[in-house]
Amino acid sequence: MSKNKTPIIILNYKTYTESTGKNAVKLSQYVQEASDETGINMAIAPQAVDLYPIIESVDIPVYAQHMDAITPGGHTGSALPEALYETGIEGSLINHSEKRLTLADIDVVVEKTRQLDLTSVLCTNNVKTSAACASFNPDFIAIEPPELIGTGIPVSQASPEVVENTVEEIHKINKNISVLCGAGISTGEDMKAALDLGAQGVLLASGIIKAENQKEALIDLVSLI
């Protein structure tokens, strides 16, 4: 399966207890099983400290949650792209609403992922920002209004025009960018609604991570497509 095949589900582990350490490895195996059983491309974005054990235990694409716009040197506490690349990741989230970057730094990081042959998943918060970021030519742009993140209210239903307009504006600039829908996605109905609006996948977190049965929640997510 191509690492960027769509529709795609990208699960951001954030820093939840349920997706940290041993729990992160177990969750990654559930995602692998759900992907194998459904034939849907699924990728994961664990914390940096969990990358090595997870990459060794699964075959699905593993992304970093963040990269800094830095070069090797004196940047204590930063996320060096080359160091993350050495773990074996296949891509990275960029500019998540919980880890914002300036436009200049977004440009640097997207270009770095391109140099390292990594998938870039650039997060944006509205239509105008999405259109501006399309000029950087990332592989994916994930539209996530920050006010809906973690609420359980899916953007595909609360603000469907945001998804439709984002897809339209991005594809005016670059038709090769795949648009993802984020914020509040947790059910098969949410996933189907996102795809019907023109998205080619979803970026989600708590709806799966906090589920009583994480694997079944993932399978339910693709049950209507």
Can you describe this structure?
By secondary structure, the protein is an alpha/beta fold. The chain has one domain: Aldolase class I (TIM Barrel, Alpha-Beta Barrel), CATH 3.20.20. It has ten helices and eight strands. It has an eight-stranded parallel beta sheet. Helix 3 (81-86) links the parallel strand 3 and strand 4. The protein is globular, with a radius of gyration of 16 Å. The mean pLDDT is 93. Substrate binds at residues 12-14, 149, 184, 205-206. Involved in the gluconeogenesis. Catalyzes stereospecifically the conversion of dihydroxyacetone phosphate (DHAP) to D-glyceraldehyde-3-phosphate (G3P). It is an enzyme of class 5 (isomerase).
Question: What's a concise summary of this model?
Answer:
The protein is of the alpha/beta class and about 220 residues long. It has helices spanning about 20-40, 50-55, 80-85, 105-115, 125-135, 155-160, 160-175, 190-195, 205-210, 215-220; strands at about 10, 40-45, 65, 90-95, 120-125, 140-145, 180, 200-205. Helix 1 packs parallel to helix 10 and helix 5 runs parallel beside helix 7.
